[in-house]
Write a structure and sequence with these properties.
Helix content of chain B: 25-40%
Radius of gyration of chain A: 25 Å
Helix content of chain A: over 70%
Low-confidence stretches of chain A: none
Strand content of chain A: under 5%
Shape of chain A: globular
Structural class of chain B: alpha/beta
Largest interface: A-B, 33 and 41 residues
Number of helices of chain A: 22
Distance between the termini of chain B: 48 Å
Strand order of the largest sheet of chain A: 1-2
Mean pLDDT of chain A: 86
Number of helices of chain B: 12
Largest sheet of chain A: 2 strands, antiparallel
Low-confidence stretches of chain B: 293-301
Structural class of chain A: mainly alpha
Number of strands of chain B: 13
Mean pLDDT of chain B: 87
Order of helices and strands of chain A: HHHHHHHHHHEEHHHHHHHHHHHH
Largest sheet of chain B: 6 strands, mixed
Radius of gyration of chain B: 23 Å
Oligomer: heterodimer
Order of helices and strands of chain B: EEEHEHEHHHEHEHEEHEHEEHEHH
Number of strands of chain A: 2
Strand order of the largest sheet of chain B: 5-6-7-3-8-9
């Protein structure tokens, strides 16, 4: 068992430190941001009262509990951090559980005199070590940001124990399904559902403006993340929820171990779903393949961005009606993000829609880069030895990338129309839809660029595409805040999107034309190179 | 007879490695042509040049008289191909993959598809990710055979199949050949080529070292004798064209050049023979001659 544990630690010697340090970095950044951006207790009280009046913000963040610096940080970041730590534990459980079994590595271990339960117990120990380390580092992170020690300890422990609960749940998921993909899928869904349940519960909760807190509605009580928020760290320091979460962790892990000790190698509680014996009639072209490969990811992108679109309405309305705009720093940030000088509510729409444009571009780039996987795994060769040209193949994936951009923008825009209409602000809804679609050409340039890189430098295409994407997004969104020159900012397509209403459409049309030309160049270039695996 | 594949002096380089170094290959219409060589000798590279996946550096290559790089799409209308390492879409079932791939070529013959699934004993409902190597290969083979083609190209098609499935594969190769199709089959499995192929091209280090029918090639090799005889070892060793002679329990064992067989038999009969086993040269011998120079070397006597 010790050997198995040591081997697992060795395998994870980079992965786990990156997750732990990354999550703590997120925590530290969030703590510092609260300290600097919200100003003193008065500033925090303004922000928190605004949040209590804005269901969208409550859903996104969590439940406020007083105006101290620590509790504001807890409100801002606990749910996010719990998701991150939950995902770390999900992947950990599957990596050392079902994935090992699926790939046949477990069979090698099972053939040795090691006990049948040794690998899962080693995985549990690894989880204890990883989450324990996280607690230590996270507490240090909170304290480094100047928060008080007892609250820091409680918040860090609550996160670590939540992580262990998700470890138990994911180990159980690994007993349920026969594939690592399925196990990770269940684990991720549980983590996201835990976030979503508490989001719904918090948004529907009963605010208490005087104490700056909130009594969440029942859905929050179904979620371990919701329990963790109930620690009310930095104000009430309530340790009871930690015990509830710990019980959940122990129960799920124990059930997973019991099932594991009783089942055969490779077996699972849920039978593996059989596929179709024949293909759907539509699956008959490279385009159909590219569309099918992207479809589940695109559904996720669409649902996520549509939720954002719905939230947009309540967010903009709340901020326009608040006195937040009197804080010049906040107004300046929003105007810079939206590349506009307009009033605050109006600046918010382009600012948020630029972020939606970024999401749309990411969805599109992802679809295009799927080509690289197809090529390096040899499936591209199988398709390209049928009478379909390389240009058709490449343009199919690129078209699906472009369609992903349009679908995400449309979904967000239409959801915003609905969200604003519910608040009686239909005009702002249509403005949001227009502002969303105006991001199209800028997002499409990244799709075109990824296609060109794929055609030209296949081995470097994935890294280069995402690298250029990150730089472009960084300059486009934050260039103004970083004090970059206007001309430098204009390098990023996103910095050239006009804030509606606008009558200067020349840059947008030019950018759209560039995107089209990039696609055409990619198709021509791809004809000229060898396929490389 | 028309030539379906014509390759002359083909060169392909990857960086500094010369994967193909002046390779020649000629496949006639209607024949099953074996493309034989050890791993890394350039078989797959040649096939990928012929399919327009790789661009040749120099030399001449045509398929159906067309340039495989420029006219890839036209050529592919008449080609069915099974790669050496079959990779399937993890979330598509075997049946879906077969339908998709055959539809890309114009659609499967439904009856043929059903009988192939039965012959290859393949469950079409399993997802691509859960197939073993052999089953992935079967999916690709069914997809290739389910729609008739003029040229079938198989890259080490049976490396993951068991002997029963190998014989199913052979039966289908014979079936398409009787239908007039041409088959190029790369392999390092000798028995497979021996049983199926009309002609063979042997490659080594990116060059064709030998080509012809197996009958022609056997001229170039030796016949193995195992004989219980009154003749003494020393007498047999003296005969011209006899190699590696040695005495084993009650028998003399040696190889003889094909040209020397007549003389050897005459000498043996003279001395008296009580039992005689003569084996034809296997392709193993051909391989050893080209790739195992040490075994081929004569004892310096």
């Amino acid at each position: 068992m010790v050997r198995i544990l040591l081997q697992q630690i060795r395998r994870d010697r980079l992965t786990l430190p990156i997750w732990i340090l990354g999550t703590v970095a997120l925590l530290a950044v969030s703590a510092t941001a609260v300290a600097t951006e919200f100003g003193d207790a008065d500033g925090r009280r303004t922000v928190l009262s605004l949040a209590l009046a804005t269901p969208a913000l409550l859903a996104l963040r969590g439940i406020p509990n007083g105006d101290s610096l620590g509790s504001t940080v807890h409100f801002q970041s606990f749910a996010f951090l719990a998701v991150t730590i939950g995902l770390m534990n999900t992947f950990l459980a599957t990596r050392h559980g079902r994935a090992d079994e699926e790939k046949g590595r477990r069979e090698l271990v099972a053939a040795t005199p090691a006990f049948r339960l040794s690998p899962p117990i080693a995985t549990l120990l690894l989880g204890l070590i990883a989450n324990g380390l996280f607690v230590v580092v996270a507490k240090a992170g909170y304290e480094a940001a100047g928060l008080d020690a007892s609250g820091a300890l409680l918040s860090a422990v609550a996160l670590g124990v939540t992580g262990l609960a998700f470890l138990g749940i994911s180990m159980l998921a690994g007993e349920l399904t026969a594939t690592s993909r399925g196990a990770n899928g269940i684990g991720v869904v549980v983590v996201l559902a835990s976030y979503a349940f508490r989001a719904a519960g918090d948004a529907l909760g009963t605010p208490d403006i005087a104490k700056l807190t909130l009594q969440p509605a029942w859905p929050s009580w179904l979620s371990p993340i919701g329990w963790g928020q109930q620690t009310l760290a930095f104000t009430d320091d309530n340790w009871a929820p930690v015990a509830w979460i710990a019980v959940l962790a122990v129960v799920t892990a124990t059930v997973a171990l019991i099932v594991h000790s009783r089942r055969e190698l490779g077996a699972s509680l849920l039978p593996e779903r059989a596929g179709r014996a024949t293909a759907r009639a539509a699956l008959r072209s490279p385009f159909a393949l590219a569309w099918w490969l992207q479809s589940s990811a695109l559904l996720a992108w669409t649902v996520g961005s549509a939720l954002l679109g719905v939230a947009l309405g309540s967010l903009v309305t709340a901020i326009s009606g608040s006195d937040l705009g009197d804080t010049p720093a906040v107004a300046q940030i929003l105007q810079s993000l939206g590349h506009t000088q307009g009033d605050l509510g109006r600046a918010l729409i382009p600012a948020l829609m630029t972020m939606v444009g970024v999401l749309a571009a990411a969805a599109g780039v992802q679809a295009v880069l799927r080509m690289r996987d197809e090529e390096s795994d040899g499936r591209a060769e199988t398709v390209l030895t049928t009478p379909h040209s390389r240009a058709v193949w490449l343009l199919s994936f690129t078209a699906v990338g472009a369609a992903s951009v349009v679908v995400v923008l449309l979904a967000t825009g239409l959801a915003a129309v609905a969200g604003f209409a519910a608040l009686g602000e239909a005009d702002d809804g249509w403005l949001s839809l227009g502002q969303g679609l105006a991001q199209g050409p800028a997002a499409l340039t990244f799709v075109g660029l990824a296609a060109v890189l794929m055609a030209l430098l296949p081995r470097a295409a994935v890294a280069l595409s995402w690298g250029i994407f990150a730089v472009g997004v960084g300059i486009g969104l934050f260039g103004g805040l970083l004090g970059l020159d206007d001309d430098v900012q204009k390098i990023s397509p996103f910095a050239n999107v006009p804030a509606l209403p606008s009558d200067d459409w020349v840059p947008t049309i030019l950018i759209g034309a560039i995107a089209l030309v990039l696609g055409a160049i990619a198709a021509l270039l791809f004809r000229r190179r060898d396929l490389v695996t | 007879m028309t030539t379906v594949i014509e390759v002359q002096d083909l060169v392909k380089t990857f960086g500094r490695t010369r994967a193909l170094d002046g390779l020649d290959l000629s496949v006639d219409e209607g024949e099953v042509h074996g493309f034989l060589g050890p791993n890394g000798s350039g078989k797959s590279t040649t096939i990928r040049v012929l399919l327009g996946m790789l661009r040749r550096r120099s030399g001449h290559a045509t398929v159906f008289g067309r340039d495989p790089w420029r006219d890839a799409v036209t050529i592919h209308r008449d080609v069915a191909y099974v790669p050496g390492d079959v990779s399937l879409w993890p979330n598509l079932s075997g049946g879906e993959t077969i339908d998709f791939l055959t539809r890309l070529r114009g659609g499967a013959d439904a009856g043929l598809r059903a009988s192939l699934l039965k012959d290859f004993d393949l469950d079409p409902k399993k997802k691509g990710r859960s197939y073993s190597k052999g089953n992935r290969q079967k999916v690709a083979l069914v997809a290739a055979f389910a729609r008739p083609a003029r040229l079938y190209i198989f890259d080490e098609p049976t490396s993951g199949l068991d002997p029963v499935m190998e014989s199913v594969f052979r039966a289908h190769v014979e079936r398409v050949q009787q239908g007039g199709a041409t088959v190029l089959l790369s392999s390092h499995i000798l028995s497979e080529v021996e049983q199926l192929c009309d002609r063979v091209t042997i490659v080594r280090a990116g060059k064709a070292v030998e080509t012809g029918t197996l009958r022609e090639m056997r001229h170039l090799t030796r016949t193995s004798f195992r004989v219980a005889t009154g003749a003494r070892l020393a007498d047999v060793q003296k005969l011209a064209g006899v190699h590696d002679a040695r005495a084993e329990a009650d028998a003399l064992v040696f190889d003889a050049d094909t040209t020397a067989v007549n003389d050897v038999l005459a000498a043996l009969t003279k001395a008296g023979v009580s039992s005689l086993t003569v084996s034809p040269p296997s392709l193993e011998d051909l391989f050893l001659r080209h790739y195992g120079d040490t075994i081929d070397a004569e004892p310096a006597a």
